[in-house]
Amino acid sequence: MAPQIKYTKLFIDNEWVDAKSGKTFDTYSPHDGSVIAKVAEGDKADIDLAVAAAKRAFHRNSPWRQLDASQRGEIIRKFSDLVVRDIDYLTELESYNNGMVLNNAKVFVGSAVNVIRSAASCADKVHGDTIPADGEVFTYTTRHPIGVCGIILPWNGPIYLFANKVCTALAAGCTVVVKPAEQTPLTALVLAALLKEAGVPKGVVNVVNGFGPGAGTALTHHSDVAKISFTGSVEVGKLIQQAAGVNNLKRVTLELGGKSPLVIMNDADLNLAVPFAANGVFFHQGQVCVAASRLYVQSGIYNKFLEEAVKYAKTIKVGNPRDPATQNGPQIDNEMMTKVLGYIEKGKKEGAKLLCGGNRIGTTGYYIQPTIFADVTDDMTIAKEEIFGPVQSILKFDTLEEVIDRSNNTNYGLAAGIFTTSLNTALQYSKHVEAGTVWVNTYLHFTPQTPFGGFKESGVGRENGLDSVLSYTEVKTVCFSLPKKV
Ligand code: ADP
User: Which residues neighbour 145 within 8 Å (Cβ) at sequence distance 6 or greater?
Assistant: First the structure.
C-alpha cells in the first residue's frame, strides 16, 4: 500500500497555507511516472511571507532568541526522537517520492538522525575567545547567529539534506526558509510538522515548495536573507553565488557536483575493491554527488578487475524500490533518465568498450541497467562530465604519478578514493589529490563529525560538525577600555 500523504501545503509561521497564487504542481512516482500528489506551488509572494516570518522569529525578543543555547539543543534533539518514532513512515515516503530503494532510504534516514543529534550537541558549544589584545583593553569575541537562512535542496537525498542543513542552522540560532526540490516536495513537509511538534517556535522553520526560477530565485535575491545553503548542480550553484551579491551580500555554502576518481592499485585487495567500486557508482542508481564515476585501474590487474566488475554488476537486482529485495531503483524522472541514456550513447560513439548494461529497462518508470564501460580515455565525455546515473567508466593507468595528475585534471574536486595495501602509496595519493574527502580502502563512508565539501567547482564551504555550525554565525569582537593600570 502507498504511504499516506499528510501534507501538501506550504508551511509558513507554523501554519499550513495555500500558495498566494492558488497554484499547485504535480509530484510523481519514479517507479511508474504516476502522479502521487498535488502540492502548493510557492512563488515570490510566498517567499516574501516566509522570509518575513523568519525575520520576526529572529528578532532579539522572539521566543526563539530568548532560549538558552542548550534549550535549542534540546528541541533539536527532541526532533531527532520524533524522526526515530516515525522512521518507518518517513522511509516509505522517501522511497515512494524519490525512487530510492527501501534499504537505501533506511540508510539515509538513519544518517539524518545521526546528523540531527550531532547538530543538537553543537548548539551550546558555539563560543568565542578572550584575546590578549594590544593596549589597555579587555577583548573577547562572541559568535552571533547570522540571521535568516535560505536552504535550497536537491532531490537525491531529501530527508538527509533537510536534516543536515536545517538543524545546523538552528543549532547556531538562525531561522530558515527551505525550498525543497520540485521533484521531491513531500518529506520536507513531514519534517516541518515534526519540528513544530518538537517545540520549534513559529516562524523559525518555513517550507516553501516550488521551482528554481520562481521560489528559488526569490529566496536567493531576498535582501532579508543573510545566507544561502545549497546542494545541487554546479550550474545552479554559480547562479546562486551571483544572486547572493545582487541585493545584499549573502554568505553561501555550496555543495555541488563531482567527477570523483577512485584508484585501484595492482596491490589492492580485489575482494574489497570490486564491491566498493561498484557500490561507489551504482549506489542509489549513481545519483550521488560523490559517485566514483572515474575508476582508474592499474595495468597489472586491469583485465582481472574488468572480469570481476562485470560479474558483480550483473548480480545487482533492479526493480520496484518499495520491494525490500531490490538493490537499485529507477532514476528520478524522465529528464534524468534521458540524460543518462544520452551519456551511454556518447560513450559508445566515442569508442569506449561497453561490457554490460547500456539500456533502459522496460517502458514504464525510469529504470536503467547497471552499465560498465572499459577502455575509457580522459578525453571522452563520460570521463569528463557528471553523469548522475549507474554508469561505471573504467580507465587504465600505469604509475602513481600519472594517476595523481589524471585524477586532478578536472574542474571538480569533491571526493577521491584509493585501494592499495601500500601505506606509502595511500599517503602520497591522499596528499596530492585535489578533493574535499579522500577514502582509503573504503568509499562512501560518511559520518556527521567529518567536514564535507568540495575543492574547485565542487563547492564552497564545508558541512557537518561544529565548524559547519560556525559557518552560520558572524564573529563579533568586543573591546573594553580598561581604567589605568593598577
Ligand atoms: P539537479 O540538477 O540535481 O536537479 P539543480 O541544481 O537543478 O539540481 O536543483 C537543485 C535545487 O535548486 C532545486 O531545489 C531547484 O529547484 C533549485 N534551483 C534551480 N534553479 C535555481 C535558481 N536559478 N535559483 C535558485 N534555486 C534554483
Answer: 58, 172, 173, 174, 472, 473
* Ligand 1 atom 22 nearest Cα: 212
145 lines ligand 1 (CB under 6 A): no
Q: What domains, with CATH codes, occur in the chain?
A: 10-256+454-476 (3.40.605.10), 261-440 (3.40.309.10)
| Closest residue CA from atom 25 of ligand 1 | 216
Asked if 15 is an active-site residue, the reply is no
233 CB within 6 A, ligand 1:
yes
- Mean pLDDT in runs of 10 for the chain (486 residues)? 96 98 98 97 98 99 98 98 98 97 97 98 98 96 98 98 98 99 98 98 98 98 98 98 98 98 98 98 98 98 98 97 94 98 98 98 97 98 98 98 98 98 98 98 96 98 97 98 82
Q: What is the pTM of this model?
A: 0.98
Among the residues of 2-151, which ranges form H helices?
Answer: 44-57, 63-66, 69-85, 87-98, 102-122
Exposure string over 408-434, b if 16+ CB within 10 A, otherwise e: bebebbbbbbbbbeeeebbebbeeebb
H or E stretch at 142: strand 137-145
